[in-house]
Design goal:
The structure holds 4 protein chains of 4 kinds.
Chain A lengths: L5 E6 L3 H10 L8 E6 L7 H9 L4 E6 L10 H15 L10 E5 L5 H18 L17 H7 L1
Parallel strand pairs in A: 1-2, 1-3, 3-4
Chain C lengths: L2 E6 L11 H9 L4 E7 L5 H14 L3 E6 L2 H14 L7 E5 L1 H5 L5 H20 L8 E3 L4 E4 L3 H12 L4 E4 L14 E2 L4 E2 H14 L3 E4 L2 E9 L2 E8 L14 H5 L3 E3 L8 E3 L1 E2 L11 E2 L5 H4 L5 H5 L12 E7 L1 E4 L3 E3 L17 E3 H8 L20 E8 L15 H15 L4 E6 L9 H10 L4 E4 L4 E5 L2 E8 L4 E7 L1 E6 L1 E3 L3 H8 L26 E3 L9 H20 L2 E3 L5 E3 L9 H5 L5 E5 L5 E5 L9 H5 L5 E3 L4 H12 L1
Parallel strand pairs in C: 1-2, 1-3, 3-4, 6-7, 6-18, 7-10, 18-29, 20-27, 21-22, 21-27, 22-23
Antiparallel strand pairs in C: 5-30, 8-9, 11-12, 12-17, 13-14, 15-16, 19-28, 24-25, 25-26, 31-34, 32-33
Helix pairs in contact in C: 1-5, 2-3, 5-18, 6-7, 6-15, 11-12, 12-13
Chain D lengths: L1 E2 L12 E4 L6 E8 L2 E7 L2 H16 L11 H4 L11 H9 L3 H5 L2 H5 L5 H5 L6 H14 L7 H17 L4 H11 L9 H7 L13 H12 L21
The chains are: A alpha/beta, B alpha/beta, C alpha/beta, D mainly alpha.
Chain lengths: 152, 302, 652, 241
């Protein structure tokens, strides 16, 4: 088991393909990151990110298409709005914002993906294991007004 | 009035005295204050970095920067060589704790090396508004076509000097245009003149410099404008040797950037030390109505 | 729930760094996992059979396959489990090759990761429900963007199959860059002699609707059902009336740059770009036309015998539906001037690009096929060719090889000798790339039969001297610097993507690389598909290419299009959004955010208005899923519960 | 017409390929030029060379392997005509681990670091910097590569600086010329220089020379300019070529 637990939510069309390309090019990368494939970063629910931290993730990386290149026209714009808001709120939940990153990697940027993973992992390695999360546990299907704000 | 720490360097105190003189003159005229760095020492020039793991090339300039740093946050080194060496030293000091410690041991206190280092062109571009200059020069140099010559040391290596575009430097142009002169495309603006090989391997200098002056002459320039004493030495002092060696008869005046601005500001060729050059600038001076002034000291062919 | 886990070894691709047996035992230790095994090559026939057998013998209801990227084989294995009688969507793929074995060298790291990913896959597939795809009809019309040789070829192939095609060209004539070439390598065929007939054919084909001076404004919809706005730019000439007599061009007083001739010579404000233009219709370039600059002139209107001139004409937007789109927007030659000050940066008239030289060589070009120095009109005797200008040069961020420079330079060296028998050509090259059929022989001929002197080295500097140009280069083979005194220098400039390529890619939602070339879906196996279904690539818009490759790719794209459109209808992905209408509050946040307006208001029996998803429109991005405050709209296959389960499994 | 300016015999031809000089060794001879055999030996020395090359890469921070031999560095190299190996060949030799050839080359002595090659390299390699570090290693090993003058000039220069804290050009000129028994080199310039008031007769001295001496001591551990370390102290009349 890798010491650190890093989760990556990647959009299927750009970043996941970019990660594939990095693999095909055999670009060596640190081993902590586990990738979850998403149709679009627009599907990445800020609550899912919080949930990950709450359950002990040491870092969460969300990566999608470059602005303007979204396979679904504007999915990544929604993602950007939501996730930037989330990033700003993380300290309120007792999570260092440095543990969260939202970036763009296109299908042809294998090298860039490898770089992103490398930088992100190194950064989290320096931060070390995350503290016991302070987010109050709650069922997945009910949300507070504040979190609703995160969504839109 | 902005004032700068001034590092003349060895050449400006001897063989390139006129560069020093002309620089001080225009600095005064343009309201730029210069305070010579107290008890400055040689920067080590090209030889220093080649010996004893190169640290000599860092510690000699370090002392100057350290002294200059007392009273100023920017220093000017008109000699491209000194400028280059100081910038390099600064770069290496910034990057190495060990070097900073060495410097501290020598200087007996923590080294001050963050001072901003400017070359002459950089300084003037910063201090002088082209339009303002134009209004003072009244187009005195109209009719001249000047070859801007940057050489190597002002712009290279690009990542350390980060002055102008190393592949195609252009900084001199706006100010020269403000004098009324033309500054046409000069393809050899950043080719090397042969550097310090003049003594040890003269043929290198003769070949390299020959091409530069030949191209300038071929393209009909009235003079080559430089901001480096070593380039000046190779192009001017050795022009006679070049003609001799290759059986050519080139007569291409080599002027310092400061001298050109001086002329533009109405100073006399003599005051600017143009008469101390090997290659006569009479033709050029004639074109701007100073021909009669300086008595013709025709060039000795060395 | 009975889950089966299959761990692919992919020969040694995976097995070399991932201990697949360990993964299997880890799987067997998991709840619900009834079966787990390693397979040497899962995609192979025996591999797939093994899965079918296991499913049937052990009555598996869910399958996890840990192998390569799902982008590679998801469809393959969906078919496999379908053959075994399962619902295709009850199979989950886990990527332990591209994302694991290939990027790690340490076996423990890779194995741990593979195990995690497998466990996450299992957790996810547990929450998976059977999905059934529906079908939508496919529009029987195809859009081809770009009227170069690739676009023409694609359009003709598709139209010949009986499918109506709209061929959109930005410029005033089709023909593209090939129409500007004099001869083609390695056969020295006359370029326009072989291209012109195809251009005419495309224009006359009853199933091809040709739109010149037109551009794609916006694209909506998805595979099988695109809706495209095409802007027909005002040319102030009535296409139907203009007879192409060119009197207007003769009489026009307004000078204008000659784009077609790459700036060699001049053109008029109203013009037909070249004699073989198709369609043979004049067009006014307003920015150069006196009527528009000065507000008075009207010469062309007076002289036009067909009275086809209409200064009032305005852009119009045509909206059409298409089943598929072929992108063939081609390339432009690299603009070298900024990046190569050492070559004069455009200061020396006698340093020209290969395309300009091509126009000089062309009998129908501005010099009537006579090679002349731009500076003094003299015939050059010493011609220097410089390869790789804007290619293989990281310092100007063009590390790529233009793939044709070596060949067209050899061609131009040969043609130079033919035009000027007493001339001498020098070619500075770095490597001779002559991979195609008959190419190597061709470059040899240039040297052996036509006496071109090849010098292996990149030129450092060019400067003028006594009316000539001195080229400072190197011949690395003899080991040192060399200089050539040249009358004319021809720069073999590289390929850049067509202007606005990136913008178009964004309109089409296809991915593109840092140079603006469109990315194929898979470099080996899906070379003409894009990442977006229903959109295909042809020619140099995908990367530097020569004519035969462009034409071949165009036909390949055409074949794909015909295959798609002729089927008539299309399976849609069932991974669409779904509303739990009982709990929907009808706030319609989902409708606001949906990029495809796939959500409509539905009235329930009790009169409440709630959200409903139009399956045929929903593309499954999941934006609505996140936007829904009470979380009652969810994307099938990516439900909150599945994603959370997957996350928790890792963090457990 | 096509003329060789480089001073290299044109055309150079591959004369012969000797095989089996030793285990797995062969060498390509390109004939010779001004007595310098233009030949490379690909051999076991690659092994030993590799470390030095790695060292050069580490010190200079440049990737020698990135060079694809386009030769642009050589095209406008200011000194190439006087070098035995033009820059692109130095890069090639390093790629092949031919360190001895590089360290003993005239190029390693003569290259005066004008960095023209560096600004034009399409791969963004600072070629001059690479040669620079080869030069330093050569210096550390006291190699003069048949170009005594260059090293002598540099040492004379530094000697001069060490003594006065500043450069005394006139003295440098004379001293250097004496040191290689060419006392009248550039002599013709002297009267001119004097007439044009271009030199001090009295050497310029700085006040705090002690600090300068400390600097020299700091870099080479002794009060002298460290020539002893390389066993060739500068003295007038030191053997010239």
């Amino acid at each position: 088991m890798a010491e650190l637990k890093l989760i990556g939510f990647l959009c299927n069309w750009c970043s996941y393909a970019g990660a594939d390309m990095a693999g095909t090019a055999r670009l060596k990368q640190p081993g902590e990151l586990r990738i979850i494939r998403m149709p679009c970063t627009g599907r990445v629910d800020p609550l899912l990110v919080l949930k990950a931290f709450q359950e002990g993730a040491d870092g969460v990386l969300v990566s999608g298409c470059h602005p303007g290149d979204c396979h679904y026209n504007e999915g990544n714009y929604y993602a950007r709005r939501r996730l930037e808001l989330l990033a700003r709120m993380l300290p309120a939940f007792g999570i260092e914002p440095e543990r969260f990153e939202y970036t763009w990697v296109s299908a042809s940027e294998g090298a860039r993906w490898a770089q992103v993973v490398d930088d992100f992992t190194t950064r989290i390695r320096m931060l070390g294991i995350g503290d016991e999360p302070t987010v109050a546990k709650q069922p997945d299907d009910q949300r507070t007004g504040e979190e609703r704000a995160v969504n839109e | 009035m902005n004032s700068y720490a001034y590092f003349p360097g060895c050449s400006l105190t001897s063989s390139a005295g006129e560069y020093d003189t002309s620089f001080r003159l225009i600095a005064e005229a343009l309201g730029i204050g210069l305070d010579v760095i107290n008890d400055w020492n040689c920067c080590g020039a090209s030889p220093a970095p080649h010996h004893w793991s190169g640290n000599l090339g860092v510690l000699l300039p370090a002392r100057n920067m350290h002294i200059a740093g007392y009273a100023h946050d920017a220093m000017v080194a008109p000699c491209a060589g000194c400028y280059n060496r100081h910038k390099n030293a600064q770069y290496e000091l910034a990057g190495s704790e060990e070097l900073r410690e060495q410097a501290a041991r020598v200087l007996r206190e923590p080294v001050r090396y963050e001072i901003e280092i400017l070359n002459l062109v950089e300084l003037l571009v910063r201090e002088v508004e082209p339009d303002e200059l134009a209004s003072r020069t009244e187009g005195r140099l109209e009719g001249l076509n000047l070859a801007t010559y940057y050489g190597c040391l002002m712009t290279r290596p690009a990542k350390i000097m980060n002055f102008d575009n190393a592949r195609n430097p252009v900084s001199m142009k706006p100010l020269l245009k403000a004098t009324g002169a033309e500054a046409g495309h000069f393809p050899f603006k950043s080719e090397c003149c042969g550097s310090y090989m003049g003594l040890a391997k003269k043929e290198i200098v003769l070949r390299a410099s020959r091409r530069i002056i030949e191209v300038a002459e071929g393209m009909g320039f009235d003079a080559i404008v430089t901001a480096c004493p070593l380039c000046h030495q190779n192009l001017d002092l050795r022009q006679g040797q070049i003609n001799k060696a290759f059986g050519t008869s080139i007569e291409m005046p080599i002027l310092y950037f400061s001298q050109v601005l001086g002329l533009a500001l109405g100073m006399s060729a003599d005051d600017l030390g143009i008469d101390s050059h090997m290659v006569s600038a009479q033709k050029l001076l004639g074109k701007i109505g100073q021909g009669d002034r300086a008595a013709d000291k025709s060039t000795e062919v060395a | 729930m009975r889950v089966g886990v299959f761990v692919c070894q992919c020969g040694t691709n995976i097995a070399a760094t991932v201990d697949t047996e360990k993964v299997v035992s880890a799987a067997l230790a998991m709840r619900d996992v009834q079966h787990a095994e390693t397979i040497q090559y899962t995609c192979s026939d025996p591999g797939q059979r093994a899965i079918v057998d296991a499913v049937q013998k052990k009555g598996l209801t869910r399958v996890v396959i840990a192998a390569c990227s799902p982008r590679m084989h998801e469809t393959t294995f969906r078919r496999t489990v379908t053959r075994a009688g399962m619902n295709p969507y009850m199979m989950e793929m886990v990527n332990i090759r591209e994302h694991c074995s290939w990027i790690h060298s340490d076996i423990d790291t890779a194995t741990d990761k593979a195990i995690d990913l497998m466990r996450m896959g299992v957790a996810r597939v547990r929450g998976q429900a059977p999905l059934n795809s529906t079908t939508v009809p496919v529009t029987r019309r195809v859009l081809v963007i770009g009227g170069g040789v690739a676009g023409i070829q694609a359009a003709l192939d598709i139209a010949d199959a009986g499918l109506p095609v709209t061929l959109v060209e930005r410029g005033p004539s089709i023909g593209g860059n090939m129409a500007r070439l004099d001869k083609t390598f390695p056969t020295l065929d006359c370029s326009s002699c072989i291209l012109t007939p195809r251009m005419v054919e495309a224009n006359q084909h009853e199933d091809i609707d040709l739109m010149v001076n037109s551009e794609v404004d916006s694209v909506r919809g998805y595979i099988g059902n695109f809706e495209v706005d095409i802007r027909r730019k005002a040319t102030c000439v009535d296409e139907d009336k203009c007879t192409g007599c060119m009197i207007c061009q003769e009489k026009c007083p307004g000078k204008a740059p000659d784009e077609f001739n790459a700036g060699v010579g001049e053109s008029k404000a109203i013009s037909i770009p070249f004699p073989q233009a198709v369609p043979m219709v004049a067009a006014i370039r307003k920015e150069h036309c006196r009527q528009f600059i000065k507000g008075k002139c009207g010469v062309c209107e007076k002289v036009c015998p067909a009275d086809a001139i209409d200064y009032e004409q305005e852009d119009t937007i045509v909206t059409e539906k298409f089943g598929a789109i072929v992108v063939a927007t081609g390339y432009q030659t690299y603009d070298w001037r900024e990046a190569y000050p050492d070559y004069g940066g455009g200061q020396y008239p006698d340093v020209i690009t290969s395309l300009q030289y091509e126009r000089m060589l062309s009998a129908s070009g501005p010099t009537g096929g006579h090679v002349k120095r731009p500076s003094d009109g003299e015939e050059p005797k010493q011609v220097v060719f410089i390869s790789c200008v804007g290619s293989r040069d990281e310092s100007v961020s063009r590390p790529l090889c233009c793939s044709v420079g070596c060949m067209y330079t050899a061609k131009q060296a040969i043609l130079t000798k033919e035009h000027i028998p007493d001339s001498q050509s020098y070619v500075f090259y770095i490597d001779i790339r002559a991979g195609g059929k008959g190419y190597e022989e061709f470059t040899r001929r240039a040297q052996r039969e036509f006496g071109a002197i090849y010098l292996r080295g990149r030129v450092g500097k060019i400067y003028p001297s006594g009316g000539k140009l001195i080229v400072m280069g190197t011949d690395t083979l003899s080991g040192g610097p060399v200089e050539v005194e040249a009358d004319l220098v021809v720069l073999a400039t590289g390929f850049d993507s067509a202007p606005g390529a990136a913008k178009l890619a964004q309109k089409l939602n296809v991915s593109y690389d840092q140079y603006g070339f469109f990315s194929e879906s898979h470099p080996k196996l899906r070379p003409v598909e894009t990442t977006t279904g229903g959109i295909y690539l042809a020619g140099a818009c995908q990367g530097p290419k020569d004519i035969p490759d462009s034409v071949a790719q165009a036909s390949a794209a055409a074949a794909k299009v015909i295959g798609l459109v002729s089927r008539g209808e299309l399976e849609t992905s069932p991974m669409v959004a779904e509303v739990n209408q009982a709990r929907c509050t009808g706030c319609f946040k989902c409708r606001d955010v949906c990029p495809y307006s796939a959500i409509e208001a539905v009235a329930l029996r009790d009169g409440r208005e709630v959200a409903g998803v139009i399956d045929s429109l929903c593309q499954g991005c999941g934006v609505c899923n996140v936007a829904c405050p009470p979380a009652v709209i969810s994307l099938k296959g990516y439900t909150d519960n599945q994603l959370i389960a997957e996350t928790l499994e890792l963090l457990r | 017409m096509f003329h060789k300016l480089a001073g290299l015999p044109w055309p150079l031809s591959v004369n012969q390929i000797h095989k089996g000089i030793g285990d797995g060794e062969f060498s390509v001879s390109l004939g010779d030029w001004e007595g310098v055999p233009l030949s490379i030996r690909v051999s076991a020395s690659v092994a030993g060379g590799a470390e030095v090359v790695a060292d050069i890469e580490r010190r200079s921070g440049e990737r020698v392997s990135a060079c694809y031999q386009c030769g642009r560095c050589t095209s406008t190299c200011t000194g190439a005509f006087a070098f035995d190996y033009p820059p692109h060949r130095i890069m090639r030799l390093l790629q092949l681990g031919q360190v001895d050839e590089v360290l003993n080359s005239r190029t390693a002595q003569l290259c005066f670091d004008c960095m023209t090659c560096s600004t034009r390299c399409p791969m963004g390699i600072d070629v001059a910097n690479v040669i620079e570090h080869a030069k330093m290693i050569a210096d550390e090993r006291g190699i003069e590569g048949g170009e005594k003058d260059i090293r002598r000039f540099r040492l004379a220069f530094l000697q001069n600086v060490r003594r006065h804290g500043r450069l005394h050009e006139a003295r440098l000129l004379t001293w250097f010329n004496l040191s290689r028994l060419k006392p009248f080199n550039d002599f013709a310039l002297v009267p001119v220089i004097l007439r044009r008031k271009k030199v001090h007769i009295v050497p310029p001295k700085i006040k705090n020379r002690e600090e300068i001496h400390r600097i020299f001591r700091e870099v080479n551990g002794n009060g002298k300019s460290g020539d002893e370390r390389h066993g060739n102290e500068i003295k007038a009349g030191g053997g010239a070529e």
